[in-house]
Amino acid sequence: MDPVVVAGAGPVGAAAAILLAQRGVPCLVLDRYAEPYPLPRAVHLDDEVVRILQELGIAEAFLRVSRPGLGLRLLDGRHRVMAEFRRDESAGPHGYPQANMFDQPDLERLLRARMAELPAIEFVGAAEVFAVDRPQTAPVVRYRNLADGREHAAPAAAVLGCDGANSTVRELIGARRVDLRFAERWLVVDGVCDEDLDAWGGVHQVCDPRRAATFMQLGPRRYRWEFRLFDHEPPVDADALLARWLGGVGVRIVRRAEYTFRAELAGRWRAGRVFLLGDAAHQTPPFIGQGLGAGLRDAYNLAWKLAADLATPGGAEALLDSYERERAPHVRAQIRLAKVAGWAMTGGQDRAAAVRRVVLGAVWRLPGLKGLALRSTSPPLRGVGRGRRAGTLCPQPRVVLDGREMWLDEALGPGWAILHTGVPPATLRDQLVAGARELHVTPALDPSGTLRRWLRGRTAVLRPDRVVHAVA
Question: What region holds the FAD-binding domain (predicted)?
Answer without folding.
Answer: 3-336
